[in-house]
């Protein structure tokens, strides 16, 4: 693991949704109207009375009895809300089933500072003075403002739905605004990825086990070996030229930072392959085959490779991720899969309140040893963005960490193939919070549209979501 | 009722605590250490990274097993926290009973912008730029920061306790931070005094009934008649001189505003007498006798008074409130009882998020008819403070209004002699929220120290509080 933890690790959450997005989104499979609501830049104070227009998408095609219809409310995460609307097929499937569909309106609410919901337009990212109103609490208050607008008096039942960071927001929205939100489906929401709750190495251990179990154990072993071999090769001109050829890099590896960048690229790739390890071909920003980790590991097998063979084998496997279409001319390690989304926004969030400790030890995981070092993390944030986290525990103070025994009407779902699952809620704190474990699931696959290749556990998870939503609604109506 | 609704009505909440404070407070009956915690000015964003020192008071004399001790946490309201510490005798009584006392530490947390917890020192009130971080949400986040500091990992059970606005904060603290707050005693907390929940006239109706029932019905009838008579007299020079003599005013009534000020003074007096209508003498900022409303009404009796008699009789009754000690030389109608507390702060809160609709109709209450007019209210706010409420429903959006059926571990207590009781929670939303009605109680008398003249219903209320706190704590420990 290379030092740029902010990038290499916390991007993962951003990518999380990309994993379910894909190029399909731009085709606009689902239709909605775009709405705007004027909201305060600062919901919790009055020193800054600026307002801005927040975007949300709406579809009421399937709200057959509008006054009685429920609202399925997607709590937007770190990206353009249209991507989420187009790629949360579960919500569309839930209402469009002619026989058994929910009588519900769909709302997809954009998270401030992403997509087109920019408080200060194209100056929103200029400095902390503009960007400083980017926080989860302000985002939740935006969502509450939308509900205040479209559902006055909370007459209609509202179900919050989200995946990844959006799943955290869905759960927190129910916890903090239970008068507005009847229940929440929080898919792959790592609400326990905070200090001293989930061990910092869990993410990388699960990630490692995904690679160890996809084809043969050689795969994770080879990855573990690769870091040192790559670094050694990168020490000489010849070695760097060799790496450039093998990986078909677009640019020469000239500076020390270039090599770091290659290692970061690989690190991010492993996360992304695991999160998006779906049993069917999916169009990502980089399109992937079905079961991409198995495809990768099949190419990276062998327990007896010498250094050169190992690099050659790794390079051939990387193509699964970098060039599945065969149309990419060369590998640009500076191009992350996430550039089209709110990378800068997420960096800021990760460097202010959303501090998620990560580490590796090289024994129980396939990465090089790196302890979690909050001070170092904070220093990197300051160097990169000019901000530091206020504390390491802000999110625990705000949302409770693992002390959520008063929570009700939340479904936490986690796929065991998802490295984030280790920080998900896997045991219910009480009988009003449901836990759904999806043994065959990667990152919030349950929020995707149904697919013929869906494993049985994914189909069941969606059914539980749907049944639970119906149960909450009928309880609310006293049925 | 005169137009300055902000003053005449919403002061009531400020006065609320004065009613239980009294001159005793300055004697320092109870002892504590003063602590300071550095907290962010803005907990929810990063545009302003200023910090300030928040004050809290601590007593652990009675925490006999410090590691197992509970924390009784007073959620400070709009005033100097020392006043609350000295005047919330219930908390001191709860721990100091040798046989049956709680093993608990006492904390009294100051509300930002009051007392000595001034984010920008003596500039804190200079403009909305400094004052704009005064909000209930920021105050709750301050309280959470204190708990994060003194109770890491939430190891010890915490009970929030507060009265009036402090009671609202205690309830909301439990609702918003249930992982930190095991339960809340919310005394006389008008959490339902918001748009379309409690009719705007209820406060004045209860107030009227207190005056109608204290001695004879003449009292409220005479008050109802008095407004027109006072105004008529005030139209002429002779009449104003007459009023000045009768009320022993310090200054002449020269301007129209002076007469308004007299009417506002009386309006505020009626609220204050009712809230502080305790069955024992108490030292207020203006000291009062036991049962002050009865004392007042005894002097303002008679169903057949002519106009002159009525004014004379009223003036003699006002002395109960204005000069019980006999040491006041003349009546200064510009001096409100609340000047020593955070009047300006509360005005700002009332004109930003804490909008509590009030009205009167002159038929079911003893005041002149005045509708609730949000626009007019907002205009007055702007004229007076340069700010307007963002919406009329902000507090409902934030805290749920009457839709609090997910709340647990809260006791809402209300005295039926308290005009604020009409906006209290009088029916439980579920079996985990307790309602305590105190038929013989004025404004949060149950938080006062025990007194030989306490009515039985007050003694019982305190016992319920104590038993409930013990029950929560033993449930938490699985007993």
TrEMBL record, chains A, B:
E.C. numbers: 3.4.16.2
SUPFAM superfamilies: alpha/beta-Hydrolases
Alphabetically ordered keywords of this record: Carboxypeptidase, Disulfide bond, Glycoprotein, Hydrolase, Lysosome, Protease, Signal, Zymogen
Pfam families in UniProt: Peptidase_S28
GO molecular function, one term: dipeptidyl-peptidase activity
Catalytic reaction equation(s): Cleavage of a -Pro-|-Xaa bond to release a C-terminal amino acid
Gene Ontology CC annotation, any one: lysosome
Localization: Lysosome
GO biological process: proteolysis
Quaternary context: Homodimer.
Family according to the record: Belongs to the peptidase S28 family.
Record's function text: Cleaves C-terminal amino acids linked to proline in peptides such as angiotensin II, III and des-Arg9-bradykinin. This cleavage occurs at acidic pH, but enzymatic activity is retained with some substrates at neutral pH.
Name the UniProt record assigns to this protein: Lysosomal Pro-X carboxypeptidase
The organism of origin for this protein: Phlebotomus papatasi (Sandfly)
